Amino acid sequence: MVDIYQTQTMMRAMELMPPKATFLRDRYFPTSDENIFVTEDVLIDYKDEYQRRMAPCVVPRKGGILVAREGYKTERMTPPYVAPERLITVDTLNKRQFGETLFSQKKPAEREGAILRKDLMELGEMIDLREEFMAAKTLFENGYTMRQYADEYGGDKYKEFDIRFYDEEANPAVYTPSASWSSNNNQFYQDLALIVRMFKERGIGCADLLMGGGVALELMKNDYLLKLLDNRRVQIGSIEPREMPNGATSYGQIIVEGTVLELISYTLKYTDEKDKVQDLVPSDSIAVTAPGTGVTLYGAITQIEEIDNKYHTYVAKRVPHIVTNVKGSIRTLTEKSRPLTVPKVKNSTISAKVLF
C-alpha cells in the first residue's frame, strides 16, 4: 500500500497539480532546472552593460591588440526560507469537507487523501504569492525586505531578511518625473522618452510598461495620448484592451523613441501579515522593463525524514514534510521552498512614481 505521507509520494502528487498562474514571476523571472541548486545557497551572476567598447584599429602586419573579455560579478546568497504549514487532526478528518453531500457517510480515513491534496495545493498557492511579491519588489524597488518569523506570523518576534541588487546607498534604477501624470498633457510621453533613452544608452532592451491600476486609469483618459493615437499621419501606437492569460490586462502598445512598449496593468492584491490588503504593483507607479529580465533561483531543502530519522536533501522548487505526533493524533504538514528572484543585468528595470 502506498504511503501518501512519504515525501517522494507527495512530491510526485504535487507535480500533477495544475500550476498557479503568477504573471510577474512567470513573465519576468522564469526558471528552469539549472536554476535549482544542490545547496541552500545560490550563485548569482550579474552583468553590467554600461561599458561598450569599440574594437581597436591596428597598424597593418602587427597582428592584433588584446582586449578584455566582458566582465561579470558573482555573488553567493542564501534565499529566504518559506515554510507555511497546516495541522491534520482527527477533528479535521471527522468534519465534512467542502463539496461533500450534507449527510456524507465518508469515513475519516477516506477523507485523508483529499484533505492532504487540498492542503498541498493551498500551501503551494501561498508560496506562489510570496514569489509574486518578491518579483514585484525586485521590479519596483530593485530588492526586497522580508520578515522571518520565529513563532506567530505577524507577531512581534521576527528577523528582517534584506536583499538588494545594487551597491549604492539608494536605488539607482529610479526615475523621478517633474510633474504628475494626472495632468492632461504630454508629461507621460516626455518621461517615457527619457526612460527609453536611458535603456538605449546602456544597450539594454525594454518592451513593457508595467502600470499600477491608478496609472492605467489616468493614462487611458489622457487627451494628449488619445490625440496621438487618432493622428492618421503618425503611427504612434494602438489601444486594444485585452485580458492576458495570467491575470494582467494589456491596453495595447505605444511607440516611444522607436521602441514599442506594451501597456500592461496588473492589479492583483495580497493580504500582508497584519491582515491589510495591499497592491502587488503600486497603484501610483510604473516600471519599464522586458520579459525575461531576471530569473527565479531555488536553494535546496534539507530535512529529517520520519521513515529513517536521517537527513535528506531535495533539489526542488517545493518540498513537503510531514511530522507525526502519535500521542496527540496530529500530523503537521509543511511545504518548504527557498526562492530568490534576481535580475540578470543590474538595474535592468527602471521604476517611477508618476502619480502624486
Features:
single chain; 356 residues; alpha+beta; capsid protein of prophage fold; six-stranded mixed sheet; three-stranded antiparallel sheet; 24% helix; globular
Description of the molecule:
- The protein is an alpha+beta fold and 356 residues long.
- It has one domain (7-50, 72-353): 2-Layer Sandwich (capsid protein of prophage fold), CATH 3.30.1930.
- It is 24% helix and 30% strand.
- The protein contains seven helices and 19 strands.
- The chain has helices at 7-16, 23-28, 90-94, 108-141, 187-202, 213-220, 223-229; strands at residues 42-47, 72-77, 85-89, 143-149, 158-164, 208-211, 237-243, 249-256, 259-265, 269-271, 277-279, 285-289, 294-298, 301-305, 310-314, 319-325, 330-336, 339-343, 350-353.
- The strands form seven sheets. It has a six-stranded mixed beta sheet with strand order 7-8-9-6-12-19. A three-stranded antiparallel beta sheet has the order 3-17-16. The protein has a two-stranded antiparallel sheet with strand order 1-2.
- The longest helix is centred in the middle third of the chain and has 34 residues, at 108-141.
- The mean pLDDT is 88.
Number of helices: 7
Which structural class is indicated by helix and strand composition?
alpha+beta
Q: What's the pLDDT, averaged over the residues?
A: 88
- Poorly predicted residue ranges: none
> What would CATH call the architecture?
2-Layer Sandwich
Number of E-state strands: 19
State the order of secondary-structure elements, H for helix, E for strand: HHEEEHHEEHEHHEEEEEEEEEEEEE
CATH topology name: capsid protein of prophage fold
Radius of gyration: 25 Å
Tell me roughly what share of residues is in helical segments: 10-25%
